[in-house]
Amino acid sequence: MKSAGILFVLIPICFILFSCRETKVKEEKLPDEMEQTILKMAQSYFSPLSDPDLKNMSPERKKMTGLGKKLFYDKILSGEQKINCASCHDIKNYGAGKLPVSKGNKDQLGFRNPPSIINAYMQYSQNWDAKYKNVEDQLIAMIFSKTEMGMTDTLELLNRLSKDPLYVKAFSEAFPGSNPSITLQTLKQAVGSFLRTLTSPSRFDVFLKGDTDALTSKEKTGLKSFMENGCVPCHSSPLVGGSMAQKFAVFGYYWDFTNSKTRDKGRYELTKNPADEYIFKVPQLRNIEKTYPYFHDGSVETLEEAIRIMGLTEAKPATE
Q1: Angle value at C-alpha 19, between 18 and 22, nearest 5 degrees
Q2: 150 — alpha (psi -120 to 50), left (phi > 0) or beta?
Q3: What domains appear along the chain, each with residue ranges and CATH number?
């Protein structure tokens, strides 16, 4: 990727990958043939998102989802009852935090940047090291993580919930066939049901469905450059990423470009396999304008700088 030359045409497409309900943008159009070419190319790499069908959700599922939302915002799930899931994944901040790393249950700093929880359930795995298969498994791991929510043990967690009359009633209504109704499994199902309603369709999806007027000419030009200059091998799929893990950086070491203060070996920290050194899950680019700071350690503050760095780290150095 020739980062200096395409930086300012890539940025516009990144800006439209956040939830925006306006579907028409008036502007002088590109030639029809070019617009159709861009559309067909985009449709070959990306698929549109849709809003969750909340109206047709069953009464039982609605109760489960409502319970999951309450749990997501309740500090009862953390050891010292100081933080909740939203402390690191604030829906008002597009499901992410605004700090490079978040504070845990005892105000300790985490190790990696908390990615957005919006659309997360559609990714092939969870966490920067792709450790967890789904959002439910990640939820339980974060609740009991000493560096995250710091819950001491399963018994303490279930006892807290069982002593709350409102939760006893809510769990029994959401899981009438479960006895007892308050278990780790039903907790996972409830919060997972809520998380699976968090999607962020935008004007980009209206465009993918065939309405070429949904994006500005500048955005379509940026999309064309994005697709033609080496970004889509990693950043394709409905989420424009989130479907694989890759080495960062391909050439050199990432801290030489990001000025990171830590040395994180990615999946190697989990597997201890030398082949996994500096392998990280490729992040989704949905909502990317709003989910700064960037990279696994939150070391880069602006989208422009993140794009510039990716251009440098993914491009093979010129040979003499």
Answers
A1: 115
A2: left
A3: 3-50+201-314 (1.10.760.10), 59-195 (1.10.760.10)
For 314, which DSSP code?
A: H
3-state secondary structure of 96: strand
**3-state secondary structure (DSSP) of residue 266:** strand
Which residue intervals of the chain are DSSP H helices? 3-15, 32-45, 59-72, 85-88, 135-144, 154-162, 165-174, 184-195, 203-208, 217-228, 255-258, 268-271, 303-314
- What's the mean pLDDT in 107-116? 92
pLDDT digits (tens, 9 = 90+) for 127-158: 999 999 999 999 999 999 999 999 999 999 99
> How many C-beta atoms surround the C-beta of residue 6 within 10 A?
19
Could you report the per-residue pLDDT of 164-205, keeping only the tens digit for each?
999 999 999 999 999 999 999 999 999 999 999 999 999 999
- With beta carbons less than 8 A apart as the criterion, state whether 118 and 91 touch: yes
pTM of this structure: 0.89
